[in-house]
Amino acid sequence: MTGGARREQLIRVAVGLFAERGFQGTTTKSIATEAGVSEAIIYRHFATKEDLYAAILDHKANEAGVEVWLNELRGAAERKDDQALFRSLGDKILESYRRDPQFQRLMFYSSLERHGISKVFHKRRGLPIFGFLRDYVAQRQKDGAFHGCDPGTVVFALVGIPTYYAIVKRLFGLDLLKATDEKVAITFTRLLLDGLRKGQAGNQSRNGER
Question: Using an 8 Å Cβ cutoff, are 131 and 203 in contact?
Answer without folding.
Answer: no
